[in-house]
Task: inverse folding
């Protein structure tokens, strides 16, 4: 049966903030060291130690922001250890991630250089768990203060005269867990205290993000909303925080110790993963509802700054390095998340997939032996969807029942869609989560006209398929002819386990 839906091209919803396509790089496993950072003496082509093939691949995604240095690592990171001559920087133990030594060779200057190369805005997570207010306050001064001051002088002594611009500032991470095991009430006070001393220097305006809830912990969000501080008051910048974060991972195994293999899974497990991914909609709606009660005007942002799949680590790799392969299943997890993000773009202002290189649901995998770089199926979803960034979200309203499957107690809707309009072009994203059956969609385009329709498909013979250095394009986007445009009707055939984008010039009446 064909699924019919309506898109009103002239009825725009919220702007899809480009920061919904944000990224995350933690000092964890081979994300920073061996991923982004190879050091200046590496035979791998690099700019001041930053791996250039990784930068070029990510630039094609137009990545809007990069969150760093954690994660859990952020709350044991002392930024002053990561400045000055590299050979003199102290070594620490990365207690969260494998107990390995961290030589601090990748620090503030290296991170800011990486952001400049990527054309991405920095999002820095400060240390609340084991740091001090003074330490965080000094870091802001070091990064952003112009003129003469102790931290500005220190920055200049380390080779950077001009202050950087840094907008996004995290007040700790997972304060309910690795970030200090605090209660919501205690953390809310701490966030206000830390936020108070993170100053705006010159015209640099910080956007302070409080460490928010884990999954369905709505009580945490409510406590933070009660304490957000002077909403609507001109002092909000100096006394409060501007946004709350949320973390939600797609985890499907029976227990934390058995999350399931990233590549060796059956159809049932595929469906369970899709159910877990689609649950992000319930969570965003739930946290938004709580925030609406305290802030109906929507001034406080919601930031999903960790999301993505979390499977068992690849066999033979360090359990603390969270290295996993990435299949077509991961790509569908990503495409479903983006559809949900586009629908919630009113409150959701940023999202960061965990993590960009070599860790969890990565865009890029690098081989430690051969140095080969592999683009994952998830990378291709970011690439195919990139024109949704800063576009106007359009509703896709079904007129017939959505196809579904029963998965245990849950009903999985197997077709997911979203659409947006920008600069006279329409972009529609469609995912068929069904691993066995194709789906046909008929979109009734009203309030304007789509003049052309170019389609791209991401699929493969099996949902377990993935890319390796030997076979880098097993799952790669290809031009697609399974679409037909007749007047105001766009028909799309979706093969089993596929992701399709359709774009074209569109005029709005
Ligand atoms: O992304 C891996 C870890 O997951 C992060 O460090 C932490 O914030 C979360 O629990």
Result:
């Amino acid at each position: 049966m064909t699924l019919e839906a309506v898109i009103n091209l002239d009825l725009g919803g919220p702007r899809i903030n480009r920061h919904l396509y944000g990224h995350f790089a933690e000092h964890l496993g081979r994300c920073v060291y061996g991923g982004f950072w190879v050091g200046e003496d590496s035979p791998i082509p690099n700019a001041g130690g930053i791996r250039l093939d990784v930068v070029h691949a990510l630039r094609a995604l137009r990545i809007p922001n990069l969150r760093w240095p954690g994660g859990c690592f952020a709350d044991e990171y002392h930024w002053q250890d990561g400045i000055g001559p590299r050979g003199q920087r102290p070594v620490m133990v990365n207690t969260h991630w494998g107990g390995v030594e961290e030589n601090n060779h990748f620090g503030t200057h290296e991170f800011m250089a990486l952001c400049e190369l990527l054309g991405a805005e920095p999002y820095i997570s400060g240390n609340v768990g084991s740091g001090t207010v003074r330490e965080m306050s000094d870091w802001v001064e070091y990064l952003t203060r112009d003129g003469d001051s102790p931290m500005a002088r220190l920055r200049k002594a380390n080779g950077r005269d001009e202050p950087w611009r840094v907008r996004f500032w995290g007040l700790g991470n997972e304060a309910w867990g690795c970030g200090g095991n605090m209660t919501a009430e205690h953390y809310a006070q701490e966030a206000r205290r830390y936020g108070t001393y993170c100053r705006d220097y010159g015209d640099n305006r910080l956007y302070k993000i409080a460490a928010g809830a884990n999954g369905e912990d709505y009580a945490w969000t409510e406590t933070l909303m009660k304490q957000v501080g002077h909403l609507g008051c001109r002092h909000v910048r100096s006394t409060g925080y501007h946004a709350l974060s949320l973390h939600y991972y797609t985890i499907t195994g029976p227990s934390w110790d058995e999350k399931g293999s990233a590549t060796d899974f059956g159809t049932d497990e595929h469906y369970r993963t899709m159910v877990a991914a689609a649950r992000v909609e319930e969570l965003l709606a739930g946290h938004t509802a709580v925030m609406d009660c305290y802030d109906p005007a929507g001034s406080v942002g919601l930031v999903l700054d960790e999301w993505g799949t979390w499977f068992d680590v690849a066999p033979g790799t360090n359990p603390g390095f969270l290295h996993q392969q990435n299949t077509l299943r991961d790509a569908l997890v990503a495409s479903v998340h983006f559809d949900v993000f586009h629908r919630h773009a009113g409150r959701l202002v940023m999202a960061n997939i965990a993590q960009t290189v070599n860790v969890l649901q990565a865009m890029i995998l690098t081989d430690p032996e051969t140095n080969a770089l592999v683009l994952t199926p998830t990378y291709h979803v970011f690439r195919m969807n990139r024109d949704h960034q800063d576009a106007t979200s359009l509703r896709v309203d079904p007129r017939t029942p959505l196809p579904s499957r029963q998965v245990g107690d849950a009903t999985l809707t197997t077709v997911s869609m979203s659409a947006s309009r920008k600069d006279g072009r329409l972009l529609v994203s469609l995912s068929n989560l069904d691993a066995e059956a194709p789906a046909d969609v008929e979109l009734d385009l009203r309030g304007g006209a789509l003049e052309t329709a170019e389609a791209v498909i991401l699929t493969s013979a099996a949902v377990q398929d993935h890319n390796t250095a030997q076979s880098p394009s097993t799952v790669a986007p290809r031009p697609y002819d399974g679409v037909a445009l007749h007047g105001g009707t766009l028909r799309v055939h979706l093969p089993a386990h596929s992701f399709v984008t359709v774009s074209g010039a569109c005029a709005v009446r």
